[in-house]
Write a structure and sequence with these properties.
Layout: E1 5-10, E2 20-21, E3 24-25, E4 29-35, E5 41-48, H1 49-59, E6 72-79, E7 91-96, E8 101-103, E9 106-110, H2 119-128, H3 130-152, H4 154-169, E10 171-176, E11 186-189, H5 201-214, H6 217-231, E12 250-251, H7 263-281, H8 284-304, H9 325-342, H10 345-360, H11 390-394, H12 402-411, E13 429-431, H13 432-439, H14 444-458, E14 470-472, H15 498-501, H16 524-533
Helix pairs in contact: 3-4, 3-16, 4-14, 5-6, 5-7, 6-7, 7-8, 7-9, 8-9, 9-10, 13-14
Length: 534
């Protein structure tokens, strides 16, 4: 059967649209497919397991397409004939949801459907594109490995290559299901392994370094659903909304005003993310469209960024705090970012003054000025990793002086556990994304220690699930170090790219000092040779 594509599409009885059970969709179809090749004969069957296996054992082929019954199977087989050399065939396994996301009541579908409106066309292309896709994938792997290694060594390269798929895998890139209009593309990201929110701002924030390095347009695509919602006036609180929906895949907003409140966190995040996108792309039109929406949130940071009411930060597992120093740092950097974004110098001045208050005037440091404390003004003997300093460095905002990073670099060498530095002095657990953010602000020796700590956790063999961004870093409180905690498969591991992001936006596709330059044309054997040399 020349040029034959066999596709089995399996769905559940009585599907429930836009719902999930145990992180699995309760609508859509599972796809099993293959395509004939010039050197193989494709056969396929569905039906009772014992009948299909018996027939295949006797004839070497599959035949039959009986209706699905409980305990039934689907099967695909290629007869390669007499094999005299290496041959390969391709199988496809996937999941299709025509209506992928519910955005404010309108169905959005996968971006691919702009070119392949039906599943058969998409699957056929997917199978035929294998060779080109493999070549592009190998090239991406090699580009990433070489440039990450040039940035911070082989162990850092190991970390980011393991993080890449996870950071993108949580994203749905979508277009309207009715018009299939690619000019109306939106991206949605699931807050995996926690509460299943959509487009949580403080999930986009830690992940954004990977998008900054690889494709900064993703920052806008992820923010756009929220920006449209805010512009419509449906969220009436004076601070930025936490997420676009409580339960994936329903990005329906919070018209009841009942989203999880993280006022300083999300306002500061929006300012930084917007500036990072514009710095990377030069897209001033996007800023002009939403500047009036963002300004009240910048004012919220001005009005509430010193005497901070008790509230959560992104690390909600640690509980709420009043006057948390790291949030005050975020407010200062966010205010300065808005000033840079809009050219409104008053905001830049205020951001700088806030930094002076918390560092030079020591409101946020211990008396000896060796580190930032967890809370002010009473300043108990405490600390928290000040990862919100990272955007100040990445975007050259100069809100805080260089002495801040020298101070932190020296201090955090002294509080490392067996697998790194915990989030703060109350905890025994670390956040890998924030630790890489902070490491990017450090002097090289401390930076390399942080990379070593994360690599040691990643390779310790104490976990059998996707990369966890939260884990026990020290045995000081009696727990077994190096063990992951709850969080897994989260896109926040995109924050591991914080060091690479210092090379500049889209730097994966540019020149990185010390990185090997790859030829424009390479085949699979060339890629394997280069990989071995690495």
């Amino acid at each position: 059967m020349k040029d034959t594509t066999a596709i089995f599409s399996l769905g559940i009885n009585n599907p429930t649209l836009y719902e999930e059970r145990d992180d699995m969709a309760t609508w859509g179809e599972a796809i099993f497919a293959s395509r004939s090749t010039p050197s193989s004969k494709l056969s396929f069957a569905s039906g009772k397991c014992e009948n299909i296996r018996s027939h295949f054992i006797k004839t070497g082929q599959l035949n039959g397409n009986d209706p699905w019954l409980p305990g039934g199977i689907v099967a695909l087989s290629h007869d390669l004939g007499i094999v005299t050399g290496s041959q390969s065939v391709r199988f496809a396994v996937g999941y299709v949801r025509e209506k992928a996301i519910n955005y404010l009541g309108a169905p959005y579908t996968g971006y691919y459907r702009a070119n392949y409106s039906g599943t058969p066309e998409a699957v056929t292309y997917f199978l035929d594109d294998y060779q080109d896709a493999l070549r592009e994938s190998l090239k991406l792997d090699l580009e990433l490995s070489t440039k990450a290694k040039a940035t911070a060594g082989q162990k850092y390269a190991d970390i980011v290559t393991l993080s890449t798929r996870q950071a993108y895998g949580a994203i749905d890139l979508t277009i309207p299901n009715d018009s299939l209009d690619i000019d109306n593309t939106l991206a949605f990201v699931k807050e995996l392994s926690s509460d299943g929110n959509l487009n949580t701002v403080d999930v986009i924030m830690p992940a954004f370094p990977i998008y900054y390095v690889m494709n900064p347009d993703y920052i806008r695509l992820l923010l756009e659903p929220m920006m449209r919602y805010l512009a419509a006036g449906r969220w009436r609180e004076p601070y930025v909304i936490h997420d676009m929906g409580s339960h994936y895949p329903n990005a329906t907003g919070h018209d009841n005003q009942q989203a999880e409140p993280m006022p300083i966190e999300e306002c500061g995040n929006l300012m930084v993310l917007a500036l990072a996108y514009v710095r990377a792309t030069g897209d001033r039109e996007w800023v002009a469209e939403y500047q009036d929406i963002m300004r009240p949130y910048a004012d919220y940071l001005v009005d509430n960024g010193v005497e901070i009411a008790e509230q959560l930060s992104s690390n909600d597992a640690a509980g709420p705090l009043a006057n948390e120093t790291n949030l005050a740092i975020k407010a200062a950097v966010g205010i300065k970012a808005f000033g840079q974004l809009t050219g409104l110098t008053e905001y830049s001045r205020i951001g700088k003054e806030r930094a002076d208050l918390f560092f030079n005037q020591r409101l946020g440091t211990d008396q000896q000025k060796t580190h930032f404390v967890l809370q002010y003004p009473n300043k108990p003997a405490s600390w928290k990793i000040p990862y919100n300093l990272y955007p100040d460095v990445l975007l050259d905002l100069d809100t805080f002086p260089p002495e801040v990073h020298q101070m932190s670099s020296a201090f955090f060498k002294s509080v490392r556990g067996e697998f790194g530095v915990p989030l703060d002095s109350r905890q025994d657990w670390a956040k890998s994304d924030w630790n890489m953010w902070l490491a990017a602000t450090f002097e090289l020796d401390t930076r390399n220690e942080f990379v070593e700590d994360l690599w040691t956790f990643m390779t310790n063999g104490k976990h059998n699930w996707p990369f966890s961004d939260r884990y026990v870093a020290t045995s000081a409180k009696g727990a077994s170090p190096g063990v992951p905690i709850l969080c897994r498969a989260r896109p926040t591991v995109g924050g591991h790219f914080a060091l690479m992001a210092l090379n500049g936006p889209r730097s994966l596709w540019g020149t990185v000092p010390g990185a090997m330059e790859l030829p424009n044309t390479m085949d699979e054997e060339d890629f394997e040779t280069q990989r071995e040399e690495l």
